[in-house]
């Protein structure tokens, strides 16, 4: 369905319903309270482009982690590559997809007020959630760096100080899905001290069956445990302590072939060391779930994290003081055939020394806020200390040498001196440690210029210090350095040097070995100015200007090191800044049975951080400017006491300017090729209908369906037509029965009910981008249709 047809259909349906349904004076939408301004306020009273999704809506849509919020938020997108830890979020089409952990997200994720280091760190089971807030546009004044495109704030359900409560949920589904969730809460001392414990266990087989290993990939195996204490000894003091632990042990993520080239670089045309008779060809259909996914080597993705936080709120009458203290650790290991995704055994992550990443983070935030005669004030300060440790051991596979001979031909390969070859098991090891310290002070004031007119002014000063030490080592057998062999042969043509050393880009051997150190000290003053006017009927009109800041950093592998002049400075990339202007409105219609909110926006990103594929991995480079223009509209309508309709749409035109010049440091950069091109989908839209109906004095039935439309886009940052993704629609649904007191329920549910075929990310694997890679384009495909049954008991 085209975007025009989708828009016309939605408009006709909505207008027709408005004209045909009388409004009831007794039926009104419930007020939605959010903390988008760091204080509890009605979502329709604040000049912020924010959406809030409550527990019931999240449950009806089957949302279990942050990545699935895209089902209800049209402005939000998610994509994942070699592991779930590398997943990245984008807002209004802006966000950087990259696997390098030195790259920080443009969309910040906060859970109970605590920042998560990267988007992938936040992709875990959430357990019981009170609400999820999605804030669009720069939010740096109050929330800090790395929110230049927006943020997601998850507020989990807290302890019950008044009475005991609990729940148990069991789910079974296709792909042998098994899920258990349960929790209990209640007062230890009524009204003063209460506890809460939640846990989730999820297991599911993968939907990609690898014919080379008889394993299934893209499965789920997750565990989450969260404990809380709430202590409120007086009306002045309220505290909340949280301890959480989660673990993933999954076989993720496979990328079967979606397209093939016809030249000599195609692995199917080569004579391989294929003693296991591996199948390489997936018939260009990545959605045939019984296909070649690996070269026979295992793919595994393991992640473990835990954290503690303490939030203290104290009321001094004249002002309130808030303190949030947190410490978190996160670690992931990635092994196996997730480098070239070719089906041939070209490169692999060492199983005995996997790709390892670790974060250790401490943060402390203080805020003081209060009211004055004509407004509200807030001041605060935050400090964070983050250590990122990385280790990569990548090795040459058994097929690489024969692949090189077939690729370049024996005459070219003969230029190698001393019979230098790509010897299986040889490779490289990189170890790095990056220490980041961030300090900020901020303030935001609301001035009530009249009963209807409010001016908001905010400022934030951020200073970010980063230091990195990267040690790179090569492990080559005798005559096992083909790049060095061809480079030292004066009779070898320049093309041979480029090609042979291009395949060796995995290592840039010997010339790049060493220890590299570098440091960065960035500071930025950001802020916001907003003017809001409330009409007599309660409609809020607002205009705003805001700036945002995303920290610069360092690539965490040798791929950024210039082998001819290697220094630690080669690793760095610049901070990203944004200036955004918005005009918006928020209103109620039909006697407050409908809310309608809209925003138009214009953003300019400078030094936009781009995850660019170099032929082996995604390296972060800087683009001088990206322009973003668009509009968004969302509505909620309580059509009857039993029927609720939600809808939203966003139009985003994001482009590199015509004179844009991509950073040429990356040796495989395609330079100005993308100038003037559009990033992301032009249209995205969501719609949902929920119907609840009593069927007896004690029983009720429920029905829910939602859909998300995404326009034509590209599944790779190169914006090459090979990576064009057609528009698609994802449909989810749920039908159930339960008692009216909500003590129990049984539901049948499904996600991607139409079994839509789409890709999250596609890539042109190594060895050399721009030459057709290995002749294959690998696709990280979206999940197929899943369905199941859930039984739940509340007590």
Automatic annotation (TrEMBL):
Span of domain TonB-dependent receptor plug = 43-150
Where is region (Disordered) located?
656-675
**Localization terms from the record:** Cell outer membrane
Q: Which residues form the TonB-dependent receptor-like beta-barrel domain?
A: 267-753
Pfam families listed in its UniProt record: Plug, TonB_dep_Rec_b-barrel
Major site of localization recorded for this protein: membrane
Q: Name one GO cellular component term.
A: cell outer membrane
Recorded topology in the membrane: Multi-pass membrane protein
Q: Which GO terms describe its biological process?
A: iron ion transport
- The signal peptide annotation in the UniProt record is 1-25
Alphabetically list the UniProt keywords.
Answer: Cell outer membrane, Ion transport, Iron, Iron transport, Membrane, Receptor, Signal, TonB box, Transmembrane, Transmembrane beta strand, Transport
Question: Could you tell me the superkingdom of the organism this chain comes from?
Answer: Bacteria
Family statement: Belongs to the TonB-dependent receptor family.
Please give the name of this protein: Outer membrane receptor protein involved in Fe transport
Q: Which organism is it from?
A: Litorivivens lipolytica
């Amino acid at each position: 369905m085209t975007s025009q047809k989708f828009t016309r259909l939605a408009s006709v349906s909505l207008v027709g319903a408005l004209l045909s349904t009388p409004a009831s004076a007794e039926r009104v939408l419930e007020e939605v309270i959010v903390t988008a301004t760091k204080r509890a306020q009605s979502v329709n009273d604040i000049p912020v482009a924010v959406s809030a999704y409550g527990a019931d809506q999240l449950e009806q849509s089957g949302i279990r982690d942050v990545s699935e919020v895209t089902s209800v938020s049209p402005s939000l997108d998610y994509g994942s590559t070699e592991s779930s830890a590398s997943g990245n979020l984008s807002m209004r089409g802006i966000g950087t997809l990259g696997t390098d952990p030195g790259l920080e997200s443009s969309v910040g994720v906060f859970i109970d007020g605590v920042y998560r280091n990267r988007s992938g760190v936040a992709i875990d089971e959430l357990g019981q959630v009170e609400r999820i807030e999605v804030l669009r546009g720069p939010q740096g004044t109050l929330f800090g760096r790395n929110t230049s495109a927006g943020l997601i704030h998850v507020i989990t359900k807290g302890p019950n100080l008044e009475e005991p409560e609990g729940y148990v949920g069991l789910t079974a589904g296709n792909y042998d899905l098994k899920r258990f969730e349960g929790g209990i809460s209640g007062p230890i001392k009524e009204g003063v001290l209460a506890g809460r414990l939640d846990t989730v266990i999820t297991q599911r087989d993968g939907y990609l069956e690898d014919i080379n290993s008889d394993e299934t990939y893209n499965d789920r195996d997750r565990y989450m445990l969260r404990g809380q204490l709430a202590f409120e000894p007086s009306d002045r003091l309220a505290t909340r302590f949280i301890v959480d632990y989660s673990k993933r042990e999954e076989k993720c993520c496979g990328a079967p072939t979606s397209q093939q080239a016809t030249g000599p670089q195609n692995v199917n045309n080569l004579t391989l060391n294929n003693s296991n008779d591996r199948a390489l060809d997936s018939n260009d259909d990545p959605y045939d779930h019984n296909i070649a996914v690996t070269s026979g080597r295992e793919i595994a993705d393991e992640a473990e994290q835990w954290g503690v936080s303490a939030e203290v709120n104290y009321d001094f009458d004249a002002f309130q003081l808030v303190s949030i203290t947190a410490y978190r650790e996160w670690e992931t290991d990635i092994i196996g055939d997730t480098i070239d995704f070719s089906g041939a055994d070209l490169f692999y992550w060492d199983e005995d020394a996997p790709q390892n990443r670790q974060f250790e983070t401490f943060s402390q935030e203080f805020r003081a806020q209060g009211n004055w005669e004509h407004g509200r004030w807030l001041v605060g300060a935050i400090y964070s200390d983050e250590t990122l440790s990385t280790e990569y051991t990548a090795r040459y596979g058994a097929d690489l040498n024969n692949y090189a001979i077939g690729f370049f031909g024996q005459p070219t390969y003969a230029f190698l001196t001393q019979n230098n070859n790509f010897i299986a098991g040889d490779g490289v090891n990189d170890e790095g440690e990056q220490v980041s310290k961030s300090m900020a002070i901020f303030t935001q004031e609301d001035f009530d210029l009249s009963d209807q007119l409010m001016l908001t002014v905010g400022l934030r000063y951020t200073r970010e210090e980063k230091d990195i030490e990267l040690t790179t080592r090569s492990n080559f057998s005798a005559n096992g350095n083909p790049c060095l062999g061809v480079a030292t042969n004066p009779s070898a043509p320049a093309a041979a040097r480029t090609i042979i050393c291009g395949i060796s880009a995995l290592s840039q051997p010997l010339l790049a070995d060493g220890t590299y150190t570098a440091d960065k000290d960035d500071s930025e003053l950001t802020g916001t100015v907003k003017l809001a006017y409330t009409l007599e009927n309660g409609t809020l009109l607002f205009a705003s200007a805001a700036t945002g800041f995303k920290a610069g950093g360092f690539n965490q592998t040798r791929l950024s090191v210039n082998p001819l002049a290697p220094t630690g400075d080669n690793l760095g990339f610049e901070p990203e800044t944004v200036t955004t202007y918005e005009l918006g409105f928020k209103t109620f219609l039909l006697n407050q049975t409908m809310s309608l909110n809209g925003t138009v926006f214009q953003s300019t990103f400078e030094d936009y951080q781009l995850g660019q594929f170099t032929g082996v991995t995604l390296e972060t480079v800087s683009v001088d400017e990206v322009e973003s223009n668009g509009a968004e509209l969302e509505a909620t309508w309580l059509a009857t006491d039993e029927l609720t309709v939600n809808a939203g749409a966003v139009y985003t035109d994001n482009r590199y300017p015509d004179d844009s010049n991509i950073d040429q440091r990356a040796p495989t950069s395609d330079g100005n090729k993308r100038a003037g091109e559009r990033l992301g989908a032009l249209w995205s839209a969501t719609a949902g209908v929920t119907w609840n109906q009593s069927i007896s004095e004690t029983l009720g039935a429920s029905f829910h369906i939602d859909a998300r439309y995404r326009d034509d886009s590209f599944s790779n940052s190169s914006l090459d037509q090979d990576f064009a993704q057609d528009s698609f629609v994802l449909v989810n649904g749920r039908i159930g029965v339960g008692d009216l007191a909500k003590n129990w329920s049984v539901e049948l549910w499904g996600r991607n009910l139409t079994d839509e075929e789409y890709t999250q990310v596609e890539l042109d694997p190594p060895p050399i981008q721009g030459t057709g890679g290995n002749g294959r384009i690998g696709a990280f495909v979206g999940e197929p249709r899943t369905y199941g049954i859930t039984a739940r008991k509340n007590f």
